[in-house]
Amino acid sequence: LISPIPFVEFVDYENDQQLTFNRFTNTPSPLNAWVPWRLETRRTKLPFPQMPIFHVGDDMVNDHATKVHDGGTKVAVTLATTTTVAPPLPLQEHLLPLSNLDLLLPPLDVGVFLCYANPAPTAAVLKEALAKTLVAYYPLAGEVVAKGDGEPELLCNGRGVDFTEARVEGAALRELRLGLVDEGVEMLMPNKKAGVVSVQFTRFKCGGAVVGCTFDHRVCDAYSFNMFLVAWAAAARGSPAPASPAPSFRRSLVAQRDPAPPLADALVEHLFCPRSAVPPPPPPPASDAGGGSINRIYRIAAADIAALKAAAGPGRTRLEAFTAHLWQLCSRAASSPRQPCCMGVVVDGRTRMFPDGAMKACFGNVLTIPYGVVGSDELGGMDLPDVADDVHRWVAEAATGEHFRELVDWVAALRPEPAVARAYLGGTGGPEAMACIVSSGVSFPVGKADFGTGPPAFASYHFPWPGETGYVMPMPSARGDGDWVVYVHVTREFAKVIEEEPTVFQALETSYVFG
């Protein structure tokens, strides 16, 4: 096997230099040796039929996420083998520190899954392309370890990515109830036990397949994983040139200033706090029958998105209008008229810190989460344009290069103590608030996730976690018609309000996904 990627970038971490070498030359380098891509295979013995249990490692936040099944026919998934796919270059083992912005993330796994109709890509093609892609994305083949002070860092050791092959004998792909995530999707996600990324390839009797991926959020955000996904798909298609710029792992782009100037305002400390300052969680209710959070996927028609944007007033974006509408729905789900409702929005800082595009290929986390808090009674009485104006105001305050630089400096001064985003804690509303976070996935490159047999019929991110803070992620429909699919992790009460609202959120029918 010869890799189609002739130029590979590595980083000199001591001097923070990114080095490029041509592995087809004899340029002296400890990394320019070439060996065929390698696989280490181990059998996974499971009783048949077996419903996989969602498990992501002993130290992960969503390790204990409750699985809720809402009835219907459960599809039996048989796991056949788990193969470790390693990059083909013998990487010199080294430690890669997480950036100051990476350290804002808790140990949390995020997933993405893609559904391919017949003919679907094969496991062999996916594994071969994965090995090639891990040359440039070698940190994804490593492991997160703890330093002496407890901080996480990335061990780049070429361990590889666990790739599980599974099959479903008794059902076709179109029989999945994708909208009911806890029932239809959990079994298709990999059982990540080690490493940074895990993959599960599930083949159905109809010839269709689902590719599920789970990755450690401490290592990368959705923007970064999208880069990897596009490169992986391009390698599977045999593209002669890289589909996107080589990923950059330079930490200097998000390094603290020396000396760090004093904070210009209190925004950073309004949005983040040391983890030691977080109050203990309230005791669980005596009985949570019918309570807890659930996971759903809905769809929104392009016409309804446009109507929502128009109703939010001039100058408002689709995401601002959507967030404002969701915030108002949050007020209807509140447990009391005076309950605070906290709404946050994830903001990417790449273009804010470097408008010239210098961070376009930056791999890692470059995120902040501004938020607003309004009482449910007041919020319910506001018009949509007023709510959208409020969303625009607090998002704009944080969407600046200076805010991100101050955030980097603040984290550096706090280390090694970890920090946490206040939006997940209810913001200034405190633990009594009903909180929800919106993370835009509208740039998700669903059309570029073509592994050689065509783009997916459906794709979505997947974010189950044990907290009751809501998490909502709109993404483009794979149909390419301007519709959105929206992943929703919310309380049952919030989901009920969403489903009773007739004008925006619609059920995800099988006929919509697979025709």
From TrEMBL:
InterPro entries: CAT-like_dom_sf (IPR023213), Plant_Fungal_Acyltransferase (IPR050317). Transmembrane segments: none annotated. It comes from the Eukaryota. Keywords: Acyltransferase, Transferase. One of its GO terms (molecular function) is acyltransferase activity, transferring groups other than amino-acyl groups. It holds the Pfam family Transferase. Belongs to the plant acyltransferase family. This is Uncharacterized protein. It comes from Eragrostis curvula.
